[in-house]
Amino acid sequence: MAQLNPKHSPWIIVLVFALVAAIRILGPSDLFQGDQAKQADYVIDIVVRGNWLIQHHEDTIMASKPPLYNWLAAPLMIASGSFSEILLKLPSRVAGLLVLLIVWDFTRKILNPRVGLLAAIFLATNYMFTKQMYFARTDMLVTLFITAQFWAVFRWTQSTKKRAWLAVLWISAAFGILAKGPIAVIIPHLGLSLWWLWMRSWRFHYKKLELWWGIPIAILPAAIWAMAIYHYGGPEVFADVYDRLITTETLSRFDAAAHPGETRSFFYYIFPLIARTLPWSVLTLIAFRYVPWRSFRRKSAACWDQYSGVILAICWLLSTLLFMSVFPSKRIVRVLPAVPPLCILAGWVFDAFLVCCFTGHQTFINQRSIHTLKRIVFTIPWVYLILGVGLIAVILLNSHLAIAIHPGMTLFIALGLIIMVSLCFYGHAKKNASLFVMGLVTCVMLGIMLDRHVLSYDERCAKYQHTQLISKDLLEYTKQNTQGSIMIMQGYYSPALRYLLVHPHRPFSLDEVVNHLETSHEDVYVVGSQKDLSRIQTLRKAIDLYTDSSYELTAIHFPSTDIFGWLKLITPMSLSSNASKK
Known about the structure:
Elements: H1 9-26, H2 36-49, H3 68-80, H4 85-88, H5 90-110, H6 113-124, H7 127-132, H8 139-158, H9 162-180, H10 183-198, H11 202-208, H12 211-248, H13 270-276, H14 280-290, H15 293-297, H16 301-326, H17 339-359, H18 367-397, H19 400-403, H20 407-429, H21 433-455, H22 467-482, E1 486-489, H23 494-501, H24 510-519, E2 524-529, H25 533-546, E3 553-558, H26 563-567, E4 574-576
Parallel strand pairs: 1-2, 2-3
Antiparallel strand pairs: 3-4
């Protein structure tokens, strides 16, 4: 058997990451998904107006998260002079790569180098993870700092340089708080507490963590930021920030009535997490079966030593799920920190499978169970083979479905799936584990490509899948219909559209609109959907309060709030001139 060679693991991980990142970047833009529009708005506020301390939407609503992501993305744009979507999402991509490398190092130390390589590769090809590593949101950043804390604590227990690893722990906690608040500290310490309670050493380890200087370091950056807000903004602004970040975005999550659209049952996360992390989540479920729970009851020292790393991964996974399940308000992206331990457990089981099937050596899986595991693992390439053949059949039949997809890309993916599945079976026949893993992982990457380049493709608005065309056509449309006047965009997707148009069409805040009305006689146009009429009326009232000048405010109503309603600019728009003369 040709064994997996862990010697070049970092380079293999970087290569897989680069391939998956290319798939994500070259696919259709997803800037309008998952509240990325808000993050774009916050970055614009820094770059255009220099508001480094507190960021706002264009409609003056305060940022819903701490500012670390904005502080990382804004300097890149200022230095380059570009408002590129790639630069906007660069902090998430860098964080994703660092998570992969930390998971590799963490797993190779706590289990073995081969499992470390497998865990990192599985994580890099995990659909949920790959989606978030090219997403302009704080979730990948907080996942990085949570992962770094687990890594630092384990290295601290093994290393002679205790203080250095404790510094990594508390500095990671500090950045995590600046990224997404106290959740970045609660989840790691909950997981570590569960692990140490299981190992019966909780009191011993927490005495050694040197909390007397660690906790101040963890809260120091956030405290400095809060004091700066109080100093420059005064008590009222500080109270607004507290109400927004602590009351609205944290404490209100315990109130089901505050977020009725996000209220879910306690067990909501289980099945969506399994579905979004397929096929590796199947192996994770199997991992729970092979942990010798009864041996722990007998307090076997050998069992503690052999499975301590596995138990830590399980505690990490369970702590994330349990803590996030307490909140009635639930969104699947909030359990992203549970994906790294999920892949660690999957890599542990898959490594045992490779050893048993490709060498015949005995592992913790007995001979009776290995046949069941083998059937489960080989189901994965068979599913991809059926998918590849099915895609070719759709293209050849020229059915209605084939019209809605990209035939050339679909054919490439289908042929790639068939070839890679064949490579899996060839590697198994030749007892070559490297070929088997390469074929299987490539199949998963082709599945991600299918989702990004085919299933995310919509013929209703085909040419607007690229942000450059969105920006160009929308700019031309607004120039024709606003005749050079101020244009304000209202609505859920408006920050993303403003981001695309920020250069050369600079966005305007309410203060700038008022100043414009005091010095100019140009009209004001508000772009929004029918559902945004109330916000437009509120804006009109706000302008009336701040200026005595005569003006005309015209609302340009798009047909709907969805992405295609915003982008179908070549069709006749519902232009309603709601004139309001003072």
